[in-house]
Structures are given as structure tokens and as C-alpha cells.
Amino acid sequence: MGYLEGFGVTFKKWAEGVTTRQYLGGRGGASDQKVPKTERAHGRHVLNRYEDGMEKCIGCELCAGVCPARCIYVRGADNPPDDPKSPGERYGYVYEINYLRCIHCDLCVEACPTEAITETKLFEFSFTNRSDAIYTKDELLVDDAGVPQHLPWEDWRPGEDEHTSGWMRATAPGGRASSEGVVGWSPELGHGVRQPEKGQSAPAADADSSGHEDSAHAHEGGH
Amino acid sequence: MGEPYLNNGVDFSDVIFAVVKAGLAFVILLVAVMLMVWFERKVVGRLQNRLGPTVAGPAGIFQTLADGIKLFFKEDIIPNRSDRFVFQLAPYLSLVPAFLTFIVIPIGGDFSDGKNGSVKIFGKETFLQVADVPVGILFFLAMSSIGVYGIMLAGWSSGSKYPLLGSIRASAQAISYEAALGLSLASVLLVSGSLSTNRIVSVQAGDGFGGIVPNWNVIATGFVPFAIFLIAGTAELNRPPFDMVEAEQELVGGFHTEYSSIRFALFFLAEFMNTVTMSAIIVTLFFGGPAGPNFGFLPGWLWGFVWFFLKLLVFLFTFVWFRATLPRLRYDQLMDLGWKLLIPLALGWLLILGAIRVAQRGDFAITDSTGVDTAIVLIIGLAIGMVAFLLLAAAIRTARTERLRDQGLVEVAPQEAH
Question: Buried-most residue among A155, B68, B107, B394 (CB within 10 A)?
Fold first, then answer.
């Protein structure tokens, strides 16, 4: 065939169907689809709370210290004795993340001693001014049901806000095979104790069924 | 010959009729171009596992309209160093010939059973084309040459180096491929015996070999002129793989680098108009245009439309397929292909076809039967053609070796240098 082979190659692509998706930013009704994301996808942050509603953040500023993009600004303060915000001595009095600088490396998540800051999988958020780009503590903190707040410029789909800490649960055991499957984190408001992700050290037979409920939900949510 | 309704003198109603026909053709062509841009983007998308335009209208069919409206409201920039008058004129020089070519194309009509494709509208008998110019094919060649002026002047008047390079390429490319285009056309004219597009379609309308094979020129001229015409036509359109004129990776945007707003849109309109028209010309010349079997249940002239648009669609798809498949040629490869392969091939094929026609008429009288004459002529013709081709190839090779040696780029072994 020589020169004409290429025509067959391109024509076969038609039969393969399309690999791109119709994403319309929430304006397209039924045809508007998001691409399914992986378990540990990095997205916008949330500040978690304990099951009794207390904030997990203790204002230690480790996240701000580790941040390579210097996008996190934290100021801690002593807990008021009559109305404590967190179980510890101190709490995060100011907590701001500048999303014009954040590179979503998740070093803050790894640095956090109390699992206060984790990342959702949401990256479909676009703002039109600088003050919207800086998320304050009020915006980052989960609501009373433990669900991340839905801001007007964010494109949440049903079910997506349940997956707020995939990366933390995958890496918190320090990457050691012996700590795989060990719960090393505290319960969360609205979710209780999250199950660890399995099948990291070896390709487990049940890798698709266990610890992947999140991604199953994500598929549903995306359609 | 000529439009039937003009044969008995011209009165005022005939003038109105002609103007309405021209206006209608313009609208049809514009809508066709709009759909062609959408079709191209959709098909190229599917050939690359993409969706193509989806948002504007059902399946994105109004994408062209949306783009046009957007471009209309963009700022119209005329560079300081440009030649203002020519700069503003160039887009129209591109667009007008692109439309004018369309007037000689019969887009419908009943050609079955020896009819000449004329229909009666408002009591006037007319062909379904704006005008049946007696020199229709020459008119097409002239217009496609004039279209290059638009590109050339656009590049020259921009007062910028990349557009100038693009337009120089356009001129060189047009000159090279016009010759191959014209020579492959000559084969069609030889078979049809007329320059009128209506007549060319009528000649192809009858049944061909065995009553099943259509009497198309693509078969009557032996396929080679069609292949040459398709390649040269793609080059003439400046479409991939011959889009050296634009060549984004080398020349920014080529000749339209400095153009913006609606002037830029006009160039694009002209380009796609040319694509539609060139496909229509191919259908007319080689595939019988609107001629095709009449299956009843529709009026005869409507079948002409159906066949024409089906055939047209095949070639529009082919052009899009070219674009999705073939990488751009290098400039010297383009020139090699045009001058060293297509022009000699088209010329040789024309001579062989001419000799065969003379033999079929029995003018050679080598033997008693014209069939045997034809066979003899064909064999002799192909043999001479082969020898000529080998001589040409040898000449080209020798010339290249000499050139490389003169430049000191290659050491030539003594036995080769003679």
C-alpha cells in the first residue's frame, strides 16, 4: 500500500469512537460530562472537623511552612476556654489558601499532624477576581454535615463532595508495606473513620472492589 | 449551446430572471460553505477521536455562523506599513473568483434519456446553473488563476515578511500546478468534445459499457487525468498536504498573517468556497455531474440534485480525509511532484489519448479493423511513453548528481561521472 496506508489509519479512527468528553461547565444538561478522576486526584482543599463538630486544625502552621508555593497563610490563637474551637490548646484563627499560587502538590496534607487539611478531587473552579481566588477559613471548612461548601464558581456534581481525603488515606501510613490497611487517622464529621486504600504494595485481587467505592461514586456523579 | 431562454431575444423579464438565478446561486453557495466548514471540523474531529464542534446549534451546525459573527465584531487592523488600497482589495479578489467559478456548474436537471438537463421555471426554459458559458472550462481555469492574485496581493501589500514569503509560495505553486491542471483537463475536453459544462455532463449521461458501468469521463479518459486533476486541484486550493501558503509552523499564518476581523473571514470563506467549487468541478468533469439513473417517485430534475450532492459529498469528504491523513510536503518536494511527475504524465497521457482517438476513427489504416489499429497504437504509445519517462528520470538524476558535485556535497565515483 505504501503511500495509501495512512488513509486506512485515519479512517479506522472513526470506528474507534471519540475519547474526548463533552464538558460544558455545568451548562449543558444531560450531555455535560466530567472525566472520571482517580482515587488520589488532587483538587481544592477542605478543612476537616471531628465527629463532635470540633475543628481539626490546631494552628501549628506546618502546612504553611512546607508549602513550596507559599500559598497558605495561617495564624494560630489560643482556644477561648468557654467556647473552644478545637480539642487542643490552640486553633487556626486565620486560614487562607491562595489558589492563584497553589500547585496542588499535597505537601500540606502530608505535613498536617491532625489530618485537618485534605484535598477533594474538585479542580473545576474558576474565579474572575483575586479576592475569590483566596479561600478563607469560612470557605474551606466543611459544613455541619461534613460536606465541603459549594461556592458559586465551583462545578460540583452529585456525589463528588464525598471524596475529600483520598491522598491522605493513601500516604498516611508512611508508604510502608507493613502499615498498609492500618487506619492511622482520626474520624471525620459526617463520615466516621474512613477506610484505608488497599492494594498498594502488591496488585491485590480485590483492588477494584475494595477501597474503590469512591471512584464508583465518582462515575455515577459524573453522568 | 447557451441558455435556451435567451435564444429568442432578451427582454426585461429575462434580465430579472438571470439576476434572481445569480442571487439564488450565491445563497446556495454560501449555505454550502457554511455547512462545509462545519462538516470539515466535524469529520476531522471524528478522524482524530474528537467530538468536533458541539455547542452552537444541534451538533454544532451553527459553529460557522457563530465564528463569523464573532469575527465581524473584532477590531479590523490595517498595518501602518501596508499598501492600504491593495490590502483592502485583496480579500475580495480572493472571494469573487471563488464565487464566479460556481456559476458554470450544473447542480441539477434531468439528463436521462438524452435530455439536455433544462427545466421550465416561470415559463422559461433554463439549465440549473447560473450561466452555460460556451467556454465554461476555460472560464474555470481563468478564475482559479485570478484567485491566486488575491493571495499574492494580500501577502505583498501586508508590508511584512511572512505574508510575503507565503504569497511568493502561492504564486510559484499556482504556476506549477496550473499546467498539470490544464493538461489533465485537456484529456476531458478531448473525450467530451466541448468546453461547455452542460455539454460535458450530457455526454457522460448515457449508459456506458454493458449498461451498468456509467459513461463517466473518469473511465473514458483512463483514470490518470482524474488522479492528476485531484492532486493538482488540492494544490490549487492550497489545502493540506499542499498548504505551503499558510504553513503555520514556518510562516505564522502565511499570507493572512496581518489580516483580522471580517477580512480574515473573507479569506477563509473564499478558501472553503474554492473547496466546494473544486469538488463540484471534479464531479462535473469526471463523474457525470447531476446525471444519474432516475428511479421515479421524484421529478426528474430533483434526481439531478440528489446525484449531484451525493457525488459532491464524496469529494468533500475526500478533501477532508486528505487533510486528516497527509503531512505537509516540503517545498522542493512540491515542485518535484508538480514539474517532474504530474506535468510530463499529464502531457504524455493526453498524447496517447489523442492517438487512440485518431486510431478509433480509422485514420491510421494500419490494418483493416479499427480495433486492431487502436490496440497497436496503444501498445506503441505506452512503449514510447515508458522510454520517455525513463529518459526523463535519467536526465533528472544526472542533473542532480552534477549539481551536488558542483556544490562539493557528494564525491562521485569515476565510473558514474560521464
Answer: B107
Question: What does the DSSP assignment read for chain A?
Answer: -GGGHHHHHHHHHHHH---S----TT-SGGG--PPP--TT----EEE-B-TTS-B------HHHHH-TT--EEEEEEEPPTTS-SSSSSEEEEEEEEETTT-----HHHHH-TT--EEE-S---B--SSHHHHEE-HHHHB--TTSPPP--TTB---TTGGG---HHHHHHTTTT-GGGTT---S--BTTTBSPPPP--SSS--TTTTTSS-HHHHHHHHHH-
In this structure, the answer to whether residues B276 and B359 fall within a common structural domain is no
- The structural domain count of chain B equals 2
Q: What is the pTM of this model?
A: 0.77
Same domain, B359 and B277: no
Q: Quick one: cell of B317?
A: 469528504
Chain B residues within an 8 Å CB radius of A17:
49
Instruction: Check B49 against A11: CB less than 8 A apart.
Output: no
Task: Count other Cβ atoms within 10 Å, centred on residue B121.
Answer: 14
Per-residue confidence of chain A (223 residues) as pLDDT tens digits?
A: 577 888 888 888 888 888 888 888 777 667 788 888 887 888 889 999 998 888 999 999 999 999 999 999 999 999 888 888 888 889 999 999 999 999 998 889 888 888 899 888 888 888 888 888 999 999 999 988 888 988 888 888 887 888 888 777 776 556 666 777 778 788 888 888 888 777 666 555 544 444 444 444 444 333 3
Q: Are residues B205 and B288 in the same domain?
A: yes
A-chain residues near B49 (CB < 8 A): 13, 16-20
Domain encompassing residue B415: 341-418
Q: Are B304 and B375 part of one and the same domain?
A: no
Mutation pick from A13, A21, A32 vs chain B, by most beta carbons of B within 10 Å, is A13
Q: State ipTM.
A: 0.71
Residue B202 CB-density burial (10 A; 0-12 exposed, 13-18 middle, 19+ buried): buried
Q: Does B274 reside within a domain?
A: yes
Domains along chain A with CATH numbers: 33-187 (3.30.70.3270)
